[in-house]
Write a structure and sequence with these properties.
single chain, alpha/beta, Rossmann fold, 2 domains, 7-stranded parallel β-sheet, 5-stranded parallel β-sheet, binds (2R)-2,3-dihydroxypropanoic acid
Length: 323
Amino acid sequence: MSKPRVLVTRRWPVSVEAALSERFDATLSKDDAALDAAQLRDALLSYDAVLPTVSDRLPAALFEGDAVQSKIIGNFGVGFNHIDVAAARAKGIVVTNTPGVLTDCTADIAMLLLLSVARRGGEGERELRAGAWTGWRPTHLVGTKVTGKTVGIIGFGRIGKAFAQRCHFGFGMDVVFYNRSVVDPAEAARYGARQLQTVEDVLQVSDFVSLHCPGGAENRHLMNAARLAAMKPGAFLINTARGDVIDEAALIAALEQGTIRGAGLDVYEAEPHVPERLRVLDNVVLLPHLGSATEETRTAMGMKVVDNVTAFFAGREPPDRVV
Ligand code: DGY
């Protein structure tokens, strides 16, 4: 029997590409370039499985008509708001993702952003590299102490919990969170955290607010101008979730006007575009979507995709099925 034909849209860790090529008739990415809509449509028309990443947009229009051949989309990543899963489901296409394996690394990047923006690490590094450091002085790049401060988490899933744990047990912070569903207080306490009822309740008391909810329609612009204005004066905003959770234009205005003190961002509304007005600000730390970017995690993510697709073509339930 011939092996299923699978298309990988970007370069993956070499060991994962090898595992995939052993099990499937795999077309690997040669140049690691993002695929455009026409190329993704062609992929859906001609491959049994398409294995995209967050940089591949798969809106409903790509699934239209009777010619779609793909039976499974194995997303390389936990977030899947770039795929219209309702349109995929309507065509009977299974969608899988890669939960669990990127929890710690993404929480680490949120911590890195929190510390960098609070302690002005980005500014210091830029100054030093520019040869502009004139030596130690008591008033130089004075930041904000983290220990004893309150951090508010929006979305208490795996990554939100891992971040809470770091903040509370690692850095002595008070941790509150908002979550759509009620979390057992004993479970929250395991992560050193306490649930509040509304997003506004969290914003009102938090010196740092960190976003850990999914992107897509349900949370689009959850942090809008009104909510940014509701943050404590002098507070910081951290985003390792998805760019569209923040109204980026409103954030830029809030940063420029000093409504909030700073932001640490790993994700943006129209990646890889990052607005010039954001890039010129000193009170932001900007990373290029590095949440899961460690060798160990990217390999584990890839192997999860391989396992999901393998299970599917063996007639078993894929372990990480989304729809
Ligand atoms: C994820 O896994 O969701 C990362 O953000 C990359 O897509």
